[in-house]
Amino acid sequence: NDGTIHVTPSEGRWVGKKAGASRASSRHDTKEEAYRAAREIAINQGLDIIVHWKDGKIQKRVRPKDMEEDG
Fold it and tell me: 29-66 burial, b if ≥16 CB within 10 A, otherwise e?
């Protein structure tokens, strides 16, 4: 585990999946919902979030210290 959770497209939906995990932590209809769920996990477990574009390329990396409660 490299300390990250990825928000990626999968089969027409969006998933949150921890690095090295065989299964998604959560599945959602929108990228926004998947990001919110991943953010909760990241804050609780001290992980960085890697957000991907729809084509799978990396959009951005968000670190826990950048995640404010209202953000």
Answer: eebebbbebbbeebeeeebbbbbbeeeeeeeeebeeee
